[in-house]
Amino acid sequence: MRRALFLGISERSGELALLSAAGWPDNLLRRLVATEAVALGLLGGAAGAGLGLGAAAVFAGALTAPLVWCAAIALTAGVAVSAIAATVPIAILHRLPIAQLLAEE
Length: 105
Description:
There is one protein chain. By secondary structure, the protein is mainly α. It has 6 helices and no strands. The longest helix is centred in the middle third of the chain and has 35 residues, at 26-60.
């Protein structure tokens, strides 16, 4: 997850530098990256929890409360892991050489 977020930052470094040069404060850029990470974790966690819940219900023969709780915990864990994995790319974001990146674009 962290690698995917890092690749997203490195591939979009020119866009992020342009936003920074246009006046976006660093905290807003960090919030953008964190929001993307949480959204990615939410989508992946929801897909995984939903598929897991469906498969577990088929194997168990019924949809029970413990299965729903496990799916909710899996969804929460997916979002938490994504948020934690975003910390390194967010730290790297603030070290981007804006002028050099804009010159390369």
